[in-house]
DNA sequence: AACTCGTACAACCGCGCTGGT
DNA sequence: TACCAGCGCGGTTGTACGAGT
């Protein structure tokens, strides 16, 4: 049995959106909020598939979109995140406020790929072209998350190949961090094993720090000892299993003694709403 | 002016995941 | 446990537009 179509294609418009359609969609979402995409077109009086409405809103009509050219900083951040996450455009977009996964994907394919090739870097493996060609099966990069005790910077080294972690592996790690006190060991076990340094000249070290304001907030929380764990921040503080506020963790994890970072693997403590949604 | 080609990006499609029943 | 609906993601396609000839 095949999958049922997401909408009745015979009665839906396709192709470019008109101004009137945009206006209807924006007006409806402003009045009723996002969600229920399947029923939205009918309710909003649009002859469009729900998926199409969602895409139009997310990629083009959302008021918080930045639009305009990518900055050099955004370029470099995309490159570094891509070397770590691969084609996980939604995750990458989660680190670039105002940018959408589609926008970043397009930008990658049209600009950054060429830019990397011009630099002699393979856009897939993020290593020098010669090396990538001679060792095609090797993985793109190695991520080593190190969090010095009194630092809020996560350092990720790309100097040797790794296996790109699946989303559930990355966030599964987060879950394990919350559920296990022995996090140094846990993290080390999850870190991809370093092979020999294959491209020492290619230094794509990524340092992800919380934005300035968040960093300041972190500092003040550290002083006052009021940090809450990821579970608590989601309103799950009643869950003994998930809440580790009472546990002291010395590397990556949650601690209320003010000496470490909450759920900060890969700098994800600064996740915005979109990222949080993707983690669910 | 007309045509071709390349580029950029909006939009579509199919699949996987998740939650509800 | 199986099934289904809905949503979200990533890959691909379609098309507008500008540059070059």
Can you describe what's shown?
This protein has 280 residues and is an all-alpha fold. It folds into 3 domains: 9-61, Arc Repressor Mutant, subunit A (Orthogonal Bundle); 72-134, Arc Repressor Mutant, subunit A (Orthogonal Bundle); 154-279, no CATH class. The protein contains 12 helices and 2 strands. A two-stranded antiparallel ribbon has the order 1-2. It starts with 18 loop residues before the first helix and ends with a helix. Residues 136-280 have low confidence and may be disordered. The chain binds a DNA duplex (21 and 21 nucleotides) through residues 3-4, 6, 14-17, 35-38, 49-52, 54-56, 58-60, 87-90, 101-103, 105-107, 109-111, 277-278, 280. It comes from Spinacia oleracea. Residues 9-61, 62-116 form the HTH myb-type domain. It is found in: Nucleus. Residues 130-155 have a biased composition (Low complexity).
Strand tally is 2
How can the largest sheet be summarized? 2 strands, antiparallel
Q: What's the arrangement of strands in the largest beta sheet?
A: 1-2
**Strand content range:** under 5%
Number of helices: 12
Instruction: Please identify the structural class as seen in this structure.
Output: mainly alpha
Rg over CA atoms, rounded to whole Å, is 22 Å
Q: Spell the H/E element sequence.
A: HHHHHHHEHHEHHH
Mean pLDDT: 58
Coarse shape: elongated
Distance between the termini: 29 Å
Q: Tell me the count of domains.
A: 3
**Which spans have pLDDT < 50 for at least 5 consecutive residues?**
136-280
Percentage of helical residues? 40-55%
């Amino acid at each position: 049995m095949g999958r049922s179509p997401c909408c009745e294609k015979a009665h839906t418009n396709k192709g470019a959106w008109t101004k009137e359609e945009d206006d209807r969609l924006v007006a409806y979402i402003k009045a009723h909020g996002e969600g229920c995409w399947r029923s939205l077109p009918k309710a909003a009086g649009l002859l469009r598939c729900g998926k199409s409405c969602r895409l139009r809103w997310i990629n083009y009509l959302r008021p918080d979109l930045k639009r305009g050219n990518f900055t050099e900083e955004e370029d470099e951040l995309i490159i570094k995140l891509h070397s770590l996450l691969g084609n996980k455009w939604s995750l990458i977009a989660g680190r670039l406020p105002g940018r959408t996964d589609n926008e970043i994907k397009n930008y990658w394919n049209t600009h950054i790929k060429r830019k990397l090739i011009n630099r002699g870097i393979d856009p897939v493996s993020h290593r020098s072209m010669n090396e990538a060609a001679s060792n095609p099966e090797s993985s793109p990069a190695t991520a080593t998350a190190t969090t010095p005790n009194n630092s809020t910077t996560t350092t990720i080294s790309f100097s040797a190949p790794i296996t790109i972690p699946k989303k559930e592996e990355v966030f599964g790690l987060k879950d394990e961090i919350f559920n296990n006190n022995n996090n140094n060991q846990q993290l080390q076990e999850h870190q991809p094993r370093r092979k020999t340094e294959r491209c020492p000249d290619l230094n794509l070290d990524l340092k992800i720090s919380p934005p300035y304001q968040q960093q300041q907030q972190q500092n003040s929380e550290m002083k006052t000892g009021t940090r809450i764990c990821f579970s608590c921040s989601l309103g799950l503080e009643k869950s003994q299993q998930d809440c580790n506020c009472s546990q002291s963790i010395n590397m990556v994890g949650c601690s209320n003694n003010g000496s470490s970072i909450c759920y900060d693997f890969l700098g994800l403590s600064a996740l915005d709403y979109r990222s949080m949604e993707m983690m669910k």
